[in-house]
Specification:
Elements lengths: L2 E2 L4 E3 L2 E3 L4 E2 L4 E2 L4 E3 L2 E4 L3 E4 L7 H11 L7 E3 L5 H4 L2 H7 L5 E3 L1 H11 L5 E3 L5 E3 L4 E6 L9 E5 L4 E5 L18 H16 L3 H13 L6 E4 L10 H11 L6 E7 L4 H16 L4 E6 L5 H10 L2 E6 L1 E2 L2 E2 L1 H13 L5 E8 L5 H11 L3 E2 L4 E4 L4 H16 L2
Bound molecules: MU-OXO-diiron.
Length: about 400
């Protein structure tokens, strides 16, 4: 499969309908993904990025139907992670001397992955590649989301090839933002930002300001995953600017795990308490053992208050909430409040541990937390509701 994006650019990537896990088991892809590769024809012909290794043979075979491989003058690799570079070994067997334009860090990444001394040409911000009447301008985008990442901007057409930035793990036969379901598209885009780009929000802001300062038209943003932004492409740039500024919606999320339902009962009573004080805030509850971790992270990203709960087990907290808190620590959310709760029967350490973990994750603790002995009775439920009312008052 290939399709034209305009007179000079053809999509030659791979839609991966079956993908359900990405980055090992770190990212759920309920709607599959795509590995977008682009063939740009000018006086010179350029291939931008490739696809993940399982599709390498298919990619090269399809590319041969599109062009005589020997007519590819240059390969641009915007980012060396294997979902974009995985077909390089297969391709370079056919055209071993073709120059590969990428950043210095990307050379290191590609050598580290494939142990080949290909014809690398290191580029940095401001460097250009002339392809006739148009140029590619390279813009390093370190840590968005790896240190080797760069954007490539094609003059004349005004296309920003942004690699992972502005992408989504979203397989769709339509491939353009104006043709797909907008709620699905934005759900996948915010999930992608929340789970991958949150730690780099300050750099996102800076990079966008740098691209805006170039004062060049952006008629299209061609990402490396998911759909291409061709209708008002700056809408996703504006969204990124919003998301990068310690983003919160009017939402409270309770995340908990529970051995015998006592902590679940607490969670529901706390939610009732919040609702009785603030009828407008959206309240969501997730049992972390039963809900996809990346979907929960997306809800955490949208929330102004996180309330974490766990029973105590072996003087610690339950496995699923522990893992989630570790993910949250790594993502370094900013500007969010938090509190903890949990039931216990014997030693009762869970709330103190949750408090510590939330603090490590950069959350502002707004209460010392609530412990309930065994299963909450009527008085215990009332305590939980009161806890919810107290937290709601601080929103
Ligand atoms: Fe889509 Fe960072 O690779």
């Amino acid at each position: 499969m290939s399709f034209k994006i305009n007179d000079s650019v053809t999509w030659v990537g791979k839609i991966d309908w079956e993908l359900r896990k990405f980055h090992g088991d770190e990212y759920s892809t309920h709607k599959g993904s795509s590995y977008n590769s682009y063939l740009v024809r000018g006086e010179k012909t350029v291939l931008i990025d490739t696809v993940w290794r399982p599709f390498a043979k298919e990619f090269v075979e399809n590319l041969k139907k599109e062009i005589d491989l020997n007519k590819i003058d240059t390969i641009i690799i915007n980012h060396g992670e294997p979902d974009h570079s995985g077909a390089l070994p297969e391709l370079m067997r056919e055209i071993p001397n073709t120059p590969i334009y990428c950043t210095k860090n990307c050379v290191s990444s590609l050598k580290g992955h494939y142990h080949q001394d290909w014809n690398f040409v290191e580029v940095k911000t401001g460097d250009k590649l002339n392809i006739g009447s148009k140029d590619f301008i390279f813009i390093e985008a370190r840590l968005l989301h790896w240190p080797d990442t760069m954007f490539s901007y094609l003059t004349g057409d005004g296309i920003l090839f942004s690699n992972d930035a502005f992408g989504q793990h979203y397989a769709s036969e339509f491939m353009f933002n104006d043709l797909v379901d907008q709620a699905e598209l934005y759900h996948e885009a915010i999930k992608y930002y929340a789970n991958i780009l949150t730690p780099f929000s300050k750099l996102v802001e800076k990079k966008i300001e740098e691209v805006v300062a170039l004062n060049v038209p952006v008629n299209m943003i061609c990402t490396s995953h998911g759909i291409i932004w061709r209708d008002n492409p700056l809408q996703i740039v504006n969204k990124y600017m919003e998301w990068a500024k310690d983003y919160n919606e009017n939402q409270v999320t309770l995340i908990y795990d529970s051995m015998w339902d006592a902590t679940r009962k607490m969670a529901e009573a706390i939610a009732e308490g919040i609702k009785s004080t603030n009828n407008e805030v959206e309240i969501k509850l997730y049992n972390t053992a039963r809900t996809d971790k990346n979907d929960i992270i997306t809800e955490v990203f949208k929330s102004k208050l996180i309330i974490a709960g766990s029973s105590t087990i072996n003087k610690g907290i339950l496995y699923s909430i522990d893992g989630l808190l570790e993910m949250m620590r790594g993502l370094s959310f900013k500007g969010k409040k938090a509190a903890a709760f949990g039931s216990y029967g014997w030693s009762g350490e869970s709330v103190a541990i949750l408090n510590e973990e939330l603090k490590k994750g950069g959350f502002e603790l707004i209460d010392e937390g609530l412990k309930v002995f065994w299963v909450p009775d009527e008085a215990g439920i009332e305590k939980c509701k009161e806890f919810g009312r107290k937290l709601a008052a601080q929103l």
